Amino acid sequence: MRTRHRLLRMTQELALDSLIRQRIRGLRLARGWSLESLAARCFLSASTLSRIETGHRRIALDQLVPIARALGTTLDQLVESADDEDVVIRPQPEHMRGLTTWLLSREGAVHGVTVAKMRITAERPTGPEQRGVHPGRDWFTVLSGTARLHLGERTILVRPGDAAEFSTMVPHTIGAHDGPVEILTILDHDGDRAHLHAMDALQP
Fold this sequence. Notes:
By secondary structure, this protein is an alpha+beta fold. It has six helices and seven strands. The chain folds into two domains: 2-85, lambda repressor-like DNA-binding domains (434 Repressor (Amino-terminal Domain), Orthogonal Bundle); 93-202, Jelly Rolls, CATH 2.60.120.10.
């Protein structure tokens, strides 16, 4: 049994090792860089980098850090697992008056953005006291129904297939117009705290 576990662990380590090499090569090619170009950016020789990419040299941690930095990524992203369980997200709905939210990205997602689907009904309060302000920009697209975007003194109707992007330093909220509306929204860190974490605070 112990030998079997050891073999399984070795197989997993080899698979991750291969994935890291593929990521390094893929990111380098996506930037249109030659081996020499990336090697110069991470202070390695082109031959060392070539052996790392092809699996003819063991990858050392002190080499991965400058490689990740040169490729515009992080060490965590370069070595993160590719397990299938990390692929599928099964969102659980969060309810409050007139609003149901499904979180479609993981908390603390890489790039600092949160993706969520929202279903808004006429019961959602949209008066001036509900119109929040926070740094950054919000973006959403309408999946079905018509959204009523209250932005400062303006009311803007956003219909299916349309998208809205706006400065969140203007008091804003989103309501439903003539029936329920479903939207897909992308929030930056400040928008996440203002819209989603504020919901957590209001839960009974």
